[in-house]
Amino acid sequence: MESIAIPAQASRKEKYEALFPQLAALIAGEKDCIANLSNLTAALKEALGFLWIGFYLVKKSDSAEELVLGPFQGPVACTRIAFGKGVCGAAWKQKQIMLVPDVEKFPGHIACNTAARSEIVVPILKNGAVVAVLDIDSHLPGDFSETDIEWLQKISELVEEIL
Ligand code: SME
Question: How far is the CA of 10 from the centre of ligand 1 (A)?
Answer without folding.
Answer: 28
